[in-house]
Amino acid sequence: MKLLESTGQMSMLDPMVLNNTRKAQVETIFFNRVPKVGSQTLMELMRRLSIRNNFGFHQDQVQRVETVRLSPEDQAILAALVSSYDPPGVYIKHVCFTNVSKFGLPEPIYINLVRDPVERVISWYYYVRAPWYYVERKIAFPDIPLPDPKWLKKDFEQCVLSNDRECRYVTGEVREGIGDHRRQSMFFCGHHPECLPFNTEGALERAKNAVERNYAVVGVLEDLNTTLTVLENYVPRFFKEEISRYNPINKNIFKPIVSEEVKNIVRKNFTKEIEFYEFCKQRLHKQYLALKLPESIT
């Protein structure tokens, strides 16, 4: 971890200022989890902790068509659902940031995770092509047709190099509905139309503002131990115990290695996503350093 360069900078770090848990009006965690960032690992950890630390565990059911952007009416319904569970408890759902207090309901504790955006988009590409993914979908929804075998076998590198429609990441492009899983920042930006265009300054700033103002912790998959330490210290009601060595789960053995050359091609079109990721990573490190744990100040 890169530490702050001066003790003067370090002395300015205050856990109270950096912790939005203090703003919560109810002991309810709202984990609007981003796909393919290690959220399954954190969800399973919370499930286990719910027994040990005595809090309710609630997650959204598998959806036939998962919609992450909601109309104002559906946002109000979701906010009411989050608020309907007896505290302490957690509610978990793949959905864009939904400001519960906007609907006159108590402010929950927001948490989430992020991941290197290019690694994440590659992970998503192969996740939706993994055999077990369609087995699970068929069991849940038997009438769903299987995809074209040619699509299943399509390689990410070739997809990028051939300028395939699926692997073009064009600034300002809007993809409504399902299938637009290019951006993790969208899960923080929210439901506003400005969040729709890909890789734009407006969407980036909305996402940053939501993290800064609303989220207690936004963890980083590549820095999982730091993430868990921060969660344990900033949201202790739910994460109180030694969790900093919890092992990741849900690895996709069907995901091949993608060359750095191809990753660099994709990175050129992910500038705002990369900036958002670095912003979240820096914030997490500030929260960690503010704890002034022995290993963080030596």
TrEMBL record:
Pfam assignment, any one: Sulfotransfer_2
Main location: Golgi
GO MF term (any one): sulfotransferase activity
Transmembrane is among the record's keywords: yes
InterPro entries recorded: Heparan_SO4_2-O-STrfase (IPR007734), P-loop_NTPase (IPR027417), Sulfotransferase (IPR005331)
Compartments, as annotated in UniProt: Golgi apparatus membrane
Keywords on record: Glycoprotein, Golgi apparatus, Membrane, Signal-anchor, Transferase, Transmembrane, Transmembrane helix
Entry membrane topology: Single-pass type II membrane protein
GO-annotated cellular components: Golgi membrane
Family assignment from sequence similarity: Belongs to the sulfotransferase 3 family.
PANTHER family named among the record's database cross-references: HEPARAN SULFATE 2-O-SULFOTRANSFERASE, HEPARAN SULFATE 2-O-SULFOTRANSFERASE PIPE
Protein name: Heparan sulfate 2-O-sulfotransferase pipe
Organism per entry: Phyllotreta striolata
